[in-house]
From TrEMBL:
SUPFAM superfamilies in the record: Nucleotide-diphospho-sugar transferases (SSF53448)
Membrane-spanning intervals of the chain: none
Class of enzymatic activity (EC top level): transferase
Database matches in CDD domains: UGPase_prokaryotic (cd02541)
EC number in record: 2.7.7.9
Domain of life: Bacteria
PANTHER family reported in the protein's UniProt record: UTP--GLUCOSE-1-PHOSPHATE URIDYLYLTRANSFERASE (PTHR43197)
Location of the Nucleotidyl transferase domain: 5-270
Name assigned to this protein: UTP--glucose-1-phosphate uridylyltransferase
Top-level taxonomy: Bacteria, Bacillati, Actinomycetota, Actinomycetes, Micrococcales
Recorded family membership: Belongs to the UDPGP type 2 family.
Organism name: Microbacterium suwonense
């Protein structure tokens, strides 16, 4: 689907990381040596998407600055002959055609997605949330786009979690399909108790949506927390027997959660130990450090 665009909501306040996020956007916190949002943009590009809209809020100008060119820095690195760092600096400004729009008031994920309507138009689009980083070795978005092309349905990413942890996620009620790794979603329950969860399949932050989702969001009233919830709109789409419905792609690859401080630290360590330039030094140190705990 060559016309598909990506939408990355990045207007949240990042209160879990205060005071670091008092002046710096949460999405710009480094994961090893790249800001978290660059991983998400690179994932979209890796799936063949070159038109990306980032939804930002106040005090988020550092995000747009990061994806802009910095001629004075590039010239300085060029003069020093530091081609490696020059390539890494220039990569972020050459990744894709990246646009920005302000959300205004933080009225929920559904409202942030709705702000993309003018840019997206009548095309299907992907939504990528920045708290979930998907390892580039385990592509997910490509499979989701393919499922959307086959079915016309809204596609959500699902991942099996420990049933004892399902209360931390949205859980999907599902029916099986003939396609391997693809399920029909019949309902969504937000953060259920373990005994009330319809499955241990948790919704993670990737969606591929038809343009008709905007019409549903327009009439979706504020829900939990007084915000417009994307989950509520997906519920309506799943319940519509005359529409294409909602399907889930079950992801069994590597996912890194940067949504809270402990998971953020784990993500840095997990990614760093797999790096060719860092892992050989880091792995022995980690073994020595942890042996003394």
């Amino acid at each position: 689907m060559s016309t598909i665009k990506a939408v990355i909501p990045a207007a949240g306040l990042g209160t879990r990381f205060l005071p670091a996020t008092k002046a710096m956007p949460k999405e710009m916190l480094p994961v090893v040596d790249k800001p978290a949002i660059q991983y998400v943009v690179e994932e979209a590009v890796g799936a063949g998407i070159d038109d990306i809209l980032v939804i930002i809020g106040r005090n988020k100008n550092a995000i747009s600055d990061h994806f802009d060119s910095v001629p004075e820095l590039e010239v300085r690195l060029q003069q020093k002959g530091d081609q490696g760092r020059l390539a890494r600096v220039m990569k972020s400004s050459d990744l894709a055609d990246i646009h920005f729009v302000r959300q205004g008031e933080p009225k929920g994920l559904g409202h942030a997605v709705l702000r993309a309507r003018t840019h997206v138009g009548d095309s299907s689009f992907a939504v990528l949330l920045g708290d979930d980083l998907i390892d580039e070795r385990d592509p997910l978005l490509v499979d989701m786009i393919a499922a959307h092309e086959r079915t016309g349905a809204a596609v959500i990413a699902l991942m099996e979690v420990d049933p004892a942890s399902i209360h931390l996620y949205g859980a999907a009620a599902i029916d099986s399909t003939d396609a391997n790794g693809v399920v029909r979603v019949t309902g969504l329950v937000e953060k259920p108790a373990a005994e009330d969860a319809p499955s241990n399949l948790a919704v993670i932050g990737r969606y591929v949506l038809p343009a008709s989702m905007f019409e549903i969001l327009e009439r979706t009233p504020p829900g939990k927390g007084g915000e417009i919830q994307l989950t509520d709109a997906l519920q309506e789409m799943a319940a519509d027997s005359d529409g294409p419905g909602v399907v889930g792609v079950v992801f069994r690859g590597r996912r890194y959660d940067t949504g809270d401080r402990v998971d953020y630290i784990k993500a840095i360590v997990q990614l760093a130990v797999d790096r060719d330039d860092l892992g050989s030094d880091l792995r022995p140190w980690l073994k020595e450090f942890t042996s003394g705990l």
